[in-house]
Amino acid sequence: MGLSKIRIGDVISLVDERNSFGITDFYGINIFKEFMPTVANTENLDNAKYKIVRKNRFVYSGMQTGRDKCIRISMFMKDSPVIVSPAYTTFDVDQEKILPEYFFMLFLSREKDRLGWFHSDGSVRANLDWDVFCDLEFEIPDVPTQQKYVDIYDAMCANQKAYEKGLDDLKLTCDAYIEELRRKMPCEKIGPYIKECNEKNDDNSISLFQGVNVDHVFTAPKRIADDKKNGNIVRTGQIAFNKVMKANGTKLPIALREGPDCVVSSSYQVFEINDKRNLSPEYFMLWMNRVETQRYAGFISFGTTRDIFSLDDMAEISIPVPDIKIQESIADIYKVYIERKRINEKLKQQIKNICPILIKGAIEEGKSKRG
Length: 371
Description:
Helices cover 38% and strands 19% of the residues. By secondary structure, it is an alpha+beta fold. The longest helix has 45 residues, at 324-368.
């Protein structure tokens, strides 16, 4: 059959299925086109107003496409349904014309994100409005050809998911060790084990500026303050956290610095473990990454002017402090988990990078069938 040109609006149908089943798994989508659990407080929400997302259903948001230079869209791939905010648009595709996986693959490229950014230019808020999205056109091959390249995509995703499952098992092992310690050992306040570091970048000797995200990783900051000398230096082995939690969905962005010395905003608090013979920094960070610790930090900061979590609040956190060799053993397992998590993210990115090549192959094969 060769190639045919489709208009998105002609191969999709809006779905507005509300949550009459009492589903409580609240999700959203991020700029990486992935589903993620919502960070918002969902207590006392009327979940009946939320939209159900089933397998192979799409979720779309045209908000701030121009700002993020990204078409915010994702396909739900799991068997158990979840719910999303009614602000999202949800739709299914006509599988007689285009396969859901192939449709999703079309958007896994920077080229398509740039296309969305270009078309959002006419919107006051740089949104990719729904009618504009529906008017986008693509050339696609016939369904059998689509299936051939979808099979390759599915095989890569299956391999990545198998690796990810091993990752989950490793995290479970870590959590089991931690939970056993929590039940069997008394907890100690960490105050005596930590020391504030308040070293300013007065002479601008350090040019590397960093921030910390809610995944507990140092990353490039969204913006760099004009007053660079007022930034706080983070030396290798020190720990930094953003004490203003309100802007981070009540999650505490905290990370152990393992790279070269850097500078963070003055809104960050910097400290170090001053008794490394009795408390391993890596073991401490394992505790800080726990959902329960994050929830505690959010609770303590709630109600302050800007939801501030101070170093004094940090000093009040209590954890079990076993023998240093036990701490190091648990921390070693956690390090393996972190490294494999990094590899998993790399695998997911590689799959996204291959998608444009698969689409190009499908188009070329479709062209060869013309006539």
